[in-house]
Design a protein that fits this description.
Layout: H1 2-13, H2 20-28, H3 40-52, H4 68-85, H5 87-101, E1 106-112, E2 120-126, E3 133-135, E4 150-152, H6 158-164
Antiparallel strand pairs: 1-2, 3-4
Helix pairs in contact: 3-5
């Protein structure tokens, strides 16, 4: 039910604000179906606020065994990952999805520097299709931190699929 509602919300934001039955009836009567999409101004307001004051992860030492110097080093590493990944655009896209249909996502991935290297780097990636992410339905926390699994579906043309997976 949530997915259907999210699809409706995305269609509404895209300007499809008239039900098909009414469009058909008004077209038959030679009457216009005018759409004044006022909802996007609120989406732009929220995403504009995020662009002007971008979020950034930080590390804060919280107990007596924590080291402020180590926290600063971790914060610098996180800032480097965010800058190298253009994380701000991933964050803005996630907030846009959250504003449009109640869910927005981005990914934190590991990648090798090259094929011959054992060095891995972290990357923050945008997930453009907000409905391509399928979370564990039994996760109870808002952040889905207790989820046991999460799937991210990707559309792939049949010819590309056959080329990549011939067997």
């Amino acid at each position: 039910e949530n997915r259907d509602e999210q699809r409706d919300d995305l269609a509404f934001a895209a300007g499809q604000q008239w039900p098909e039955t009414i469009i058909t009836q008004r077209n038959a009567d030679m009457r216009p179906c005018l759409t004044f999409n006022r909802s996007l101004q609120y989406v732009h307001q929220v995403t504009g606020d995020i662009r002007q004051s971008p979020p950034a992860a930080s590390v804060v030492p919280v107990d007596d065994k924590a080291d402020i110097r180590t926290a600063k080093i971790y914060s610098s590493i996180i800032r480097h990952v965010e800058n190298a990944s253009d994380a701000q655009s991933a964050y803005v896209n996630a907030v846009e999805g959250s504003t449009l249909c109640g869910e927005g996502h981005f990914r934190l991935l590991t990648a090798y520097d090259d094929f011959e290297s054992a060095n891995q780097k972290l990357e923050i990636k945008t997930i453009r299709d907000h409905l391509s992410v399928d979370w564990d339905p039994y996760a109870e926390e808002k952040t889905k931190a207790d989820a046991r699994y999460c799937f991210v579906y990707t559309k792939l043309p049949l010819a590309d699929f056959k080329a990549e997976y011939p067997d």
